[in-house]
């Protein structure tokens, strides 16, 4: 699915940025390897080249900075928790999720994956559930994730969200939905038979 949050857009931009640098490095190394086939070895016994050694030591360090600095910026953006409008607690079970809207009294439900034989013709196999979460757009949403039995991982790729649910531990993250839509996610941890 296409991006539906500013954080996912930043992740896509960083991916494209890193891929551009990798393509440039691959083209340069490929060109140098290709040119080796036509080398006449004029300087075959040339022993000292301090300038070129300094260049091929410093240049990769500079290139790594061009990857590391945007990556660190993005890590801090992903980890920042802003003032949430809605808090949603998720508890992973084998093999369903329990949801609680923490800001309201007694709003909690379980969400089970719809079995393939009960799926409607327009449903998505291994993705559709019987009870969907409804969240507002253009609002900061905080997610609290834990698990009751084994390690689970609550993931929605279109929102750039992936949080591990570990028994005995409460993890949190946040996201901002900037367009309406129906977004699908899956458990991203091998948690058992109905892992999907």
Describe what this molecule looks like in 3D.
The chain is of the alpha+beta class. It contains 2 helices and 8 strands; from the N terminus they run ααββββββββ. The chain has helices spanning 6-36, 50-79; strands spanning 86-93, 96-101, 108-112, 140-147, 152-156, 161-165, 171-176, 186-187. Strands 3-2-1-4-7 form a 5-stranded mixed sheet, with no helix packed on it. A 3-stranded antiparallel sheet has the order 6-5-8, with no helix packed on it. Helix 1 (6-36) runs antiparallel to helix 2. The two termini are 17 Å apart.
Summarize the structure.
With 196 residues, the protein is of the alpha+beta class. It has helices spanning 6-36, 50-79; strands at 86-93, 96-101, 108-112, 140-147, 152-156, 161-165, 171-176, 186-187.
Structural key phrases:
single chain; 196 residues; alpha+beta; Helix Hairpins; Immunoglobulin-like; 8 strands
Alpha carbon gyration radius: 24 Å
Please report the distance between the alpha carbons of the first and last residues. 17 Å
Per CATH, the architecture of the largest domain is Sandwich
Major sheet summary line: 5 strands, mixed
Strand line-up in the sheet with most strands: 3-2-1-4-7
Task: Tell how many strands the DSSP assignment holds.
Answer: 8
Helices and strands: which structural class?
alpha+beta
Can you tell me the CATH topology of the largest domain? Immunoglobulin-like
Q: Can you say what the CATH homologous superfamily of the largest domain is?
A: Cupredoxins -  blue copper proteins
Give the rounded overall mean pLDDT: 88
H and E string: HHEEEEEEEE
User: Which percent bin holds the helix content?
Assistant: 25-40%
Overall geometric form: elongated
Beta-strand content: 15-25%
Number of helices: 2
Please indicate the count of domains.
2
- List low-pLDDT spans: none
